[in-house]
Amino acid sequence: MSGESKNMPPSWHTTDVSWYRKDLPEINESARKILEQYSGISPDGITSHLHEVRTQAWNIFPYPSIGNWHFLHLGILQQPRYPEILERLQQGQKLLDVGCGFAQDLRQLVFDGAPAENVYGIEIEKPFVDLGYDLFLDRAKIPSANFLAADIFKSDSAAKNLFGSIDIIYASQFFHLWGWNNQVEAGKAVTKLLNPARRSLIVGYQIGAIVPKEHQHSPTKEGKMYLHDRTSLQKLWGEVGEATGTKWMVEAWLDEAEIFSSYVKLDKDVRRISFAIERME
Hints:
alpha/beta
């Protein structure tokens, strides 16, 4: 999640948009386990709890992932390298969720045995960090110092405290918030966070396309997003590498795009693209 709610007109907070779903969809098994077994919420209290937190979040910034309940989707579990990520954290490496929102994927890692002190989150809107604690009722489990309210594009933001210390970046619906040029800038900013002494890894997913394209009139601050296939994503990270003196190998795959259908006007070429981007040197 990324944006500045103070710059948005009141009309942005209307619920009369295609990406706001009033009813709560059926909660997937993984999310229900987190809410019941990790957060300790009773089964009959989950619905009211989710509606309360969702309303507060929508009033801060009306992200599509809030309106369509997508924050209940634990995308990190669909990463083929999830077992490796969990093992690396258990061995002492650090993971950062950029644009973490409620940081639901970090909760999944901790629930599965990752040390809480090794997971970090960055979110530009600080209230979302607090709402993440309200949603998962876990202030005593994950140190508050591990969540930063920061803009990674600004070199003097709190993100600088993590420069060179992160081994794994998780980027869920993050890079697609911009067009090509700003995606390159985001890649350069992320590279600063990574430990140069290790074979760093960036994993996540976003909106992609069979035929790469710049999608206009998107519900993002920039108003556009560049949709990648594997080849264009490799090219983009080639540019990032040239600018930062690094080399990256991109693994990426396209699959269904249903999770995005409520807030992007999809055509037949649009897909979800998942990726694992590994530093080669």
